[in-house]
């Protein structure tokens, strides 16, 4: 595995995890529900951009499991 491929796998795993980010992460904060929603939407947008970039680069559709993401990037 090249360093670039390892970086792409790491990016994909982080982005897939970030897609699941929800407002419970802000439970201890004092920001409004509207602001929580704005931040959450932006996180999901950034994650989606990262995933699309990796999918385009490797011409694959990434799944949701760690093994699927690794297999798609390394072997397809």
Report what the structure shows:
The chain is an all-alpha fold and 76 residues long. It has helices spanning 3-18, 33-58, 66-75. The longest helix is centred in the middle third of the chain and has 26 residues, at 33-58. It is elongated, with a radius of gyration of 15 Å. Helix content is 68%, strand content 0%. The model has no long low-confidence stretch (mean pLDDT 92). The protein is built from three helices and no strands.
What spatial form do the alpha-carbon principal axes imply? elongated
Spans with pLDDT under 50 lasting ≥5 residues?
none
Count of helical regions? 3
Radius of gyration computed on alpha carbons:
15 Å
What sequence of helices (H) and strands (E) makes up the elements?
A: HHH
Q: Provide the β-strand percentage band.
A: under 5%
Number of strands: 0
Give me the secondary-structure category. Answer: mainly alpha
Head-to-tail CA distance between termini: 14 Å
Helix content: 55-70%
Mean pLDDT across all amino acids: 92
Largest sheet: none
Question: In summary, what is this structure?
Answer:
This protein has helices at residues 3-18, 33-58, 66-75. With 76 residues, it is an all-alpha fold.
What structural keywords apply?
76 residues; 68% helix; mainly alpha; 3 helices; single chain
Element layout with pairings:
Elements: H1 3-18, H2 33-58, H3 66-75
Helix pairs in contact: 1-2, 1-3
């Amino acid at each position: 595995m090249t360093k670039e491929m390892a970086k792409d796998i790491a990016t994909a795993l982080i982005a897939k995890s970030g897609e699941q980010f929800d407002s419970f992460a802000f439970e201890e904060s004092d920001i409004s529900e509207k602001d929580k929603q704005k931040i959450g939407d932006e996180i999901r947008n950034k994650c989606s951009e990262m995933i699309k970039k990796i999918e385009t680069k490797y011409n694959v559709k990434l799944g949701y499991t760690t093994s699927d993401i690794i297999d798609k990037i390394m072997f397809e």
